[in-house]
Amino acid sequence: MREYNMTISIRGAIAATLLAGSALAAAPAFADEAPASPVTITGNVSLVTDYRFRGISQSAGKMAVQGGITATHSSGFYVGTWSSSISEGSLPGYGSQELDLFAGWSGEVTPGVTLDAGLLYYVYPGGTDAFDTDFFEPWASIKGTVGPATIKVGANYAWKQSSLPNAFDGSKDDNLYVYGNVDIAIPSTPVTVSGHIGYTNGVLAPCYYCTGDKTGVDYSIGASATVFGPLSVGVSYIGVSGPSFNNYSDDSVVGTVTASF
After folding, report:
1. pLDDT one-digit tens code per residue, 207-227
2. Residue 4 domain-assigned (yes or no)
3. Residue 216: which domain range?
4. Residue span of the signal peptide, if any (predicted)?
5. Is a pLDDT exceeding 90 seen at residue 22?
6. In CATH, what number is assigned to the domain containing residue 57?
7. What is the pairing mode between strands 39-48 and 252-260?
8. What is the pLDDT of residues 161-201, one digit of tens each?
């Protein structure tokens, strides 16, 4: 998930009044600032050359359009939604859209350390009625800085649900995903270099439905930069463990163009 802020304030000014007489007295000017809203709205729209979820293509190696919007309260609580186009070539029966609904809380729990926790709901509006597609996934992460690096570690856990079936007996199953990210801003430049590694144990493992292996690793390294105002670009090399299937689990270079507000 993906973060930007924009705040707007409106100021009203009361003009100074001039009094006529043997002497002129200038009345002081007063500024009357409207109270700041406790809610901040942020969002973004992106075009990616391939939508990769934990190393696996969700768009069959094709371009995808993505975007989201989040409302954040000053208390740290937030709600939002994010969506991407997907492909039946990668996700048969899931339709052509993924829609994520989420809510959570983020805040500093100790100086320099931020906790983020919440609940995700993955929805596939165009999915077939033949089987369940939608599922819930809670998450928690901790983020802090070490010198020029921002380090984040986290975990997502999807409990046993009918939309996460065991491939061998059809029973409900679960999935655990743990990961680590590091972002390093290059001084005096708009460039940030990023690295990621993740480990899956469960039915969302990269090649579970290919080989039956319920574990797997995904990784990426890349860079991003702000090029003009709210516009940024990025490129990443993404890989995943297990057999390499073209436009599905093969290593890929993914480009991104994002506009934020």
Report:
1. 888 888 999 999 999 999 999
2. no
3. 11-260
4. 1-31
5. no
6. 2.40.160.40
7. antiparallel
8. 999 998 888 899 999 999 999 999 999 999 999 999 999 99
* Cα–Cα distance measured from residue 166 to residue 78, given in angstroms and rounded to the nearest whole number: 33
Handedness of CA 3, 135, 208, 179 (dihedral sign): positive
Residues 6+ apart with CB under 8 A from 234: 222, 223, 224, 225, 255, 256, 258
In the chain, how many domains are there?
A: 1
Q: Is residue 1 part of a domain?
A: no
Residue 66 placed within a domain: yes
State the distance between the two ends of the chain, measured CA to CA, in whole angstroms: 15
Kindly state the tokens that stand for 8: 């707007």
Dihedral sign from CA coordinates of 123, 139, 58, 207:
negative
